[in-house]
Amino acid sequence: AGLRSRGIRVSGEEGDHVRGVHVLRNRIRNAGWVGITTSYADDVLIDGNTVWGSKEEHGIYVANSADNPVITNNTVFLNPEAGIQINGDPELGGDGIITGALVAGNRIYLNGSAGSAALNLASVRDSVFMNNLIYDNQSQGIANWDDEGGEEYGCKNNLYINNTVIMPPGSRHVFSLRHGSTGNTVLNNVFLHLGGKDSLAVDRASIAGLRSDYNIVTRIEDTAGRLVTLESWQQQTGQDQHSFVATAAEVFKDAASHDYSLREGSPAIGRGVAVEVLDKDITGAVREGPRPDIGAYRYQPRVPAANR
């Protein structure tokens, strides 16, 4: 595709949004700019697409004061900036905020050679992010910020549950809250950094209203920008009292081969907290019992050959 081209474009205008467009099960490769882009488009469904190799920016890009996007079950990889970018564009027309998003069941990897985050969120609120698998991205994992509109445009009152995010050595934050991204709930996630950086970074403008707990982490960047232990973070803030530290080898079946399902005896098994909206895992398996497993995958024991 040519320069600045989109594989699929869904566009309305300020004051005249398009509504209810479905973008389903497409394969989009080598778009000149972005693979799938929507602007001023409410109630869009972007499901089951494979998007890779965009030349300039993102795989999937939802923008411009558009509410209730559903972005599910997509595979997005090898894009130079974000795998999935959602931003409200407060400098343009409209309210500059995206509300009511559902982002679930996506596999996002090998993005970010030019920066950004695998899942890059700006001015997004009252939204749910769950059961996403994010690994081997070069910049950040999940980033929340204000789209340069000021703290009133931070990402607010969102729910981040049962995501698995693994960042390689040399990359930046696994999960970050910046620039007035307040009131967020962060539960049951595997947030592991395989290098020397942090699992969770929260600035002073984003700590208000935070509930973070039942996560598997490595280190934390505190509100002063210091890299600290989980224990220090717990003492400073009271957050993450049921969270704990573990390695990829302890948690996953075969992380070296990118199998991020849970191994037998994984500390993630049965260590989460029940959340009403959570009923299945990334594969569609029903999550059973009062204490869900942590991360995108529910543990499924191997069935002996004699019982198959």
Overview features:
about 300 residues; mainly beta; Pectate Lyase C-like; ten-stranded mixed sheet; about 5% helix; about 35% strand
CATH topology: Pectate Lyase C-like
| Structural domains: how many | 1
Strand content: 35-45%
**What is the CATH C-level name?**
Mainly Beta
Query: Structural class, from helix and strand content?
Result: mainly beta
Strand order of the largest sheet: 1-5-9-12-16-20-23-26-29-30
Mean pLDDT: 95
Shape: globular
Main beta-sheet strand count, sense and barrel state: 10 strands, mixed
Q: Percent of residues in helical segments? A: under 10%
Query: CATH superfamily, please?
Result: Single-stranded right-handed beta-helix, Pectin lyase-like
Specify the CATH architecture: 3 Solenoid
Radius of gyration: 19 Å
> What is the terminal separation in angstroms?
48 Å
Spans of at least 5 consecutive residues whose pLDDT stays below 50 are: none
| Tally of strands | 33
Count of individual helical segments: 2
Note down, in words, how this protein is organized:
The chain has two helices and 33 strands. The strands form seven sheets. Strands 1-5-9-12-16-20-23-26-29-30 form a ten-stranded mixed β-sheet. With 308 residues, it is mainly beta.
